[in-house]
Design goal:
Blueprint: H1 3-20, H2 22-28, E1 35-36, E2 39-45, E3 92-98, H3 99-110, E4 122-134, H4 144-158, E5 177-188, E6 190-197, H5 204-224, E7 229-235, E8 239-242, H6 244-249, H7 258-272, E9 279-286, H8 293-310, E10 314-319, H9 327-336, E11 342-347, H10 353-361
Parallel strand pairs: 6-7, 6-9, 9-10, 10-11
Antiparallel strand pairs: 1-2, 2-3, 4-5, 7-8
Length: 365
């Protein structure tokens, strides 16, 4: 078995372990802090890696020196100091998984359908595809099966093939190499715009739930939209655009006007993301408090007239807080009911993150 086959087999074992403990990885989030470009380091306990251990030279041991049946193995020596522990040792291994591999695990675990991009929001991109064979090329692209078949034909046509001793040795003129050509493929463009209430009622735990959920949402969307863009808006009574780090760390006090975030989000889309060229995914997270019924009616108006006709889907996630009323979700349920263009999800705690991701991504929009 080749090193590559061994590596692939180990990758399968790792993926199986991640699937087995998937809820833990989603709700704890320790892996999110170990991102490196397109890879994430996954801490995996309980996987034993075989290793060789070498002892010092010229020392007695099993199979060395004099001995009699019944003799003990090794030297008696003094016992160790301290109390014996009651738990087994933990063998922690960190393994790199790509974002695409994580997306595959997420999709398989939640049975998510692939996303069909909305409309014709595509740009053309060039990529190489191996589609033919040639008699010359780099050794790394030599195609074994085709080279072997050509050698076999040579043996058969020359009458040198011996069924009793079927040894086929390809020579230089038998070698075949994979060739590539440039092809143009449509590449969908997409932007995710995250909005979050950062007023005093949204505590650290609520923001951590949003951080974990947005990571997995992005992981799935990146599988379908290469070069996915992400924007972040925070709001209390006023809204502003921030970077990702600020988005998850900011805390404010005072009232909440959700419409301020929706207005800013609309402005960003109209300025930077023409709806005939982009797939647009607005996500809003809040604990459900809004300043007034009048502002909620304004939010419903903006949703109806702008977001629902123009976005692929509008997602609202309500993170439960002991300080929040949760009224906004009830208002949206009353106004939009079964409208498939808006997806509503209630996130009571970390254990509900997977259910919420399924709510948002389970329709393939």
């Amino acid at each position: 078995m080749s090193i590559k086959e061994d590596h692939n087999r180990f990758k399968d074992i790792v993926k199986g372990k991640v699937k087995e403990d998937f809820k833990k990885y989603v709700t704890q989030g320790e892996m999110i802090g170990k991102r490196e470009n397109d890879f994430v380091k996954i801490p995996l306990p309980h996987i034993e890696i075989p290793t060789f251990r070498y002892g010092s030279k010229q020392q007695g041991g099993v199979g060395q020196g004099q001995g009699q049946p019944g003799d003990g193995v090794g030297e008696p020596g003094e016992g160790g100091q301290g109390q014996a522990g009651e738990n087994p040792g933990e063998h922690l291994l960190e393994v790199d998984l790509s974002m695409d591999e994580l997306a595959d695990i997420l999709g398989e675990k939640l049975e998510l359908p692939n996303i069909v991009p909305k409309g014709n929001k595509n740009i053309d991109m060039e990529k190489s595809r191996y589609s033919g064979l040639a008699p010359v090329g780099p050794e790394g692209l030599r195609h074994f099966r085709s080279s072997y078949k050509k050698a076999l034909k040579r043996y058969l046509s020359s009458g040198t093939y011996n069924p009793e001793d079927p040894v086929i040795v390809p020579i230089r003129r038998d070698f075949q190499y994979r060739t590539s050509k440039k092809i143009t493929q449509p590449q969908a463009k997409a932007v995710v715009i995250y909005m979050m209430d950062v007023s005093g009622s949204m505590g650290d735990e609520q923001k951590e739930i949003v951080r974990l959920e947005s990571f997995w949402i992005n992981t799935w969307l990146k599988k379908h939209y290469k070069g996915l863009e992400t924007r972040f808006i925070i709001h209390d009574a006023a809204a502003k655009e921030v970077d990702e780090n600020t988005f998850f760390r900011t805390s404010e006090s005072g009232g909440t006007l959700i419409s301020s975030a929706y207005k800013l989000c609309q402005q960003i889309i109209e300025t930077d993301y023409p709806v005939n060229e982009w797939n647009i995914y607005p996500f809003h997270f809040s604990d459900g408090d809004n300043w007034s019924g009048e502002d909620t009616r304004l939010c419903v108006k903006i949703l109806t007239e702008f977001f629902l006709p123009k976005a692929n889907v509008f997602c609202y996630g309500q993170v439960e807080s002991k300080y929040g009323s949760g009224q906004f979700l009830k208002d949206l349920q009353k106004d939009f009911g079964e409208d498939g263009r808006i997806i509503l999800s209630q996130i009571e705690n970390r254990d509900k993150i997977l259910d919420s991701i399924k709510d948002f991504l389970g329709k393939g929009k």
